[in-house]
């Protein structure tokens, strides 16, 4: 029998690698898509009559407008604005009305940013913007990191597995009735990994919650623990099917009560320390 407190004490602070914080390859790739246009717009820096100069530049190089949203850290090419009780839809994929672009540049503050020489180079400025936008992807990268770690252990154990499988596909492939897990087919539940042996189908979920990224009030953690507790209880009623949860991260200490409740009903709940000790080869049969 495992002791919950001992098990929880083994949780890791982080699994982040150097690429977790900023994906610079992605940043450089995104900037590369706008580099020519940004360099053309550099001619507006310190302009004494920027609206006139901007209009002339757009007339000569209309493609420069496509980089305008990036300067305000906006993804996509359409921007919706309410100005003086009027709705505007600015489309920066094409320049149908240069006066609208001038209005946007003026009111958003971009003309001031450029003409007052607050910045020296729009490529450098946009690179900083891209770095800021990319930092929002850390949550997704954290999930991917955990999946990569777990997948490496699955491969080491030489197990037959598939990634990201829906309940409906598991039912079709192996003739299992998982309606109790899918709310009679209404849920589109997808598992991170599905491992198949001669006698069993193992549905595996993975997640990592770092201590430095504590969810507000631990609500996300509590919701996850409760959800997986229900899956664990229902899974015990299904022949030939087991639910496996691999989780870690010191943020769980803020929601340990709910985690312990799931720990008490789910035999196949493991942390990274157990994976490193080869637990998969012992329990997956």
Keywords:
single chain, 285 residues, alpha/beta, 5-stranded mixed β-sheet, two-stranded antiparallel sheet, 14 helices, elongated
Q: Provide the low-confidence segments as ranges.
A: 213-217
Average pLDDT, rounded to a whole number, is 91
| Envelope shape | elongated
What's the helix-strand series?
A: HHHHHEEHHHHEHEEHEHEHH
The helix content, as a percent range, equals 40-55%
What is the number of E strands? 7
Strand order of the largest sheet: 3-4-5-6-7
Radius of gyration: 26 Å
| DSSP helical segment count | 14
Into which percentage range does the β-strand content fall? Answer: 15-25%
Q: N- to C-terminal separation?
A: 20 Å
Structural classification: alpha/beta
> Can you summarize the main beta sheet?
5 strands, mixed
Protein architecture, described:
It is a single chain. The protein has 285 residues and is of the alpha/beta class. It is built from 14 helices and 7 strands. The strands form 2 sheets. The chain has a 5-stranded mixed sheet. Helix 11 packs parallel to helix 12 (256-265). The protein is elongated and about 75 Å long. The two termini are 20 Å apart.
Summarize it:
By secondary structure, the protein is of the alpha/beta class. The chain has helices spanning 4-9, 24-32, 35-41, 50-60, 68-71, 98-108, 110-115, 122-135, 138-156, 167-174, 219-235, 256-265, 272-276, 279-283; strands spanning 78-83, 86-91, 161-166, 190-196, 201-208, 241-248, 269-270.
């Amino acid at each position: 029998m495992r002791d919950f407190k001992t098990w929880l004490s083994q949780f890791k602070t982080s699994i982040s690698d150097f690429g977790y914080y900023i994906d610079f390859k992605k940043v450089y790739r995104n900037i590369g898509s706008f580099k020519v246009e940004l360099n053309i717009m550099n001619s507006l820096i310190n302009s004494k009559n920027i609206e006139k100069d901007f209009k002339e530049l757009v007339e000569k190089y209309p493609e420069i407008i496509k980089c305008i949203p990036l300067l305000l850290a906006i993804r996509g090419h359409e921007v919706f604005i309410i100005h003086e009780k009027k709705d505007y839809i600015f489309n920066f994929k094409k320049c149908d009305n240069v006066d609208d672009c001038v209005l946007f540049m003026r009111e958003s503050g971009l003309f001031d940013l450029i003409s007052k020489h607050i910045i020296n180079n729009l490529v450098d400025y946009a690179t900083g913007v891209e770095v800021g936008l990319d930092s929002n992807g850390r949550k997704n990268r954290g999930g991917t990191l955990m999946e990569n770690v777990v997948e490496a252990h699955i491969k080491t154990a030489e197990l037959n597995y598939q990634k990201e499988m829906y309940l409906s596909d598991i039912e079709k492939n192996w003739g299992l009735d998982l309606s109790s897990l899918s709310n009679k087919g209404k849920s589109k539940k997808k598992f991170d990994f599905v491992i198949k042996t001669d006698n069993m189908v193992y549905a595996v979920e993975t997640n990592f919650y770092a201590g430095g990224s504590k969810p507000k009030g631990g609500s996300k953690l509590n919701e996850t623990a409760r959800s997986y507790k229900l899956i664990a209880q229902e899974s015990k009623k299904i022949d030939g099917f087991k639910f496996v949860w691999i989780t870690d991260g010191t943020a769980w200490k803020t929601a340990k009560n709910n985690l312990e409740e799931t720990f008490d009903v789910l035999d196949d709940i493991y942390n990274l320390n157990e994976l490193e000790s080869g637990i998969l080869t012992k329990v997956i049969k």
